[in-house]
Amino acid sequence: MLAAIWAQDQNGLIGKNEALPWYLPDDLKFFKEMTIGNTLIMGRRTFEGMGGRPLPGRTTIILTRNQNYQAPAGVYVMHDVNAVLEYAQKKEHTVFIAGGAAVYTALLPFCDYIFRTVIEDSFEGDTYFPAIEWENWRLVKKVAGKIDDKNKFPHTFEEYERIHAD
């Protein structure tokens, strides 16, 4: 099963200089809880923006067109969408698409679920989530995130499932 997971501000911003433009520990905790024991698919720049190391307890796959890209030990590389789809089809766990914008654009049409954190504030950055045809998705869960000294921005966690034509 393929699922997309991301956090965005109220304007759809998802990145600044290959990193998150905010610090929100509640969302980082959510991301970890959702993805632990599963696979993460991300582009090279997203991977490098996260420190260039695999996250513990998850299989990391970098999707890149660069045929010569040398991933660090424990990280796998794929070069096309079909390879990702074949991999996901064979897995019993969830394969999460984790960025960046080009990877979301390429793989969102094949996702069955979306896990989106919406931060109810505006930030400056350079990368926005690609347009989504929301009529193809149904909101199944929406939960307010906690606000405290470490989590200063109001946010919600949303779960969507794809609406399949009958």
List the helices and strands and how they pair.
Elements: E1 2-9, E2 13-15, H1 25-35, E3 39-43, H2 44-49, E4 59-63, E5 75-78, H3 81-90, E6 95-97, H4 101-107, E7 113-119, E8 127-128, E9 137-144, E10 155-162
Parallel strand pairs: 1-6, 1-7, 3-4, 3-6, 4-5
Antiparallel strand pairs: 2-8, 7-10, 9-10
Organism: Enterococcus canintestini
Function: Key enzyme in folate metabolism. Catalyzes an essential reaction for de novo glycine and purine synthesis, and for DNA precursor synthesis.
EC number: 1.5.1.3
Question: Would you kindly provide a written description of the structure presented here, covering whatever features stand out?
Answer:
The chain has 166 residues and is an alpha/beta fold. It has one domain: Dihydrofolate Reductase, subunit A (3-Layer(aba) Sandwich), CATH 3.40.430. Helix content is 20%, strand content 32%. The protein has four helices and ten strands. The protein has helices spanning 25-35, 44-49, 81-90, 101-107, and strands at 2-9, 13-15, 39-43, 59-63, 75-78, 95-97, 113-119, 127-128, 137-144, 155-162. The strands form two sheets. The chain has an eight-stranded mixed β-sheet, with helices on both faces. The protein is globular. The two termini are 19 Å apart. The mean pLDDT is 95. Keywords: NADP, One-carbon metabolism, Oxidoreductase. Its EC number is 1.5.1.3. Belongs to the dihydrofolate reductase family.
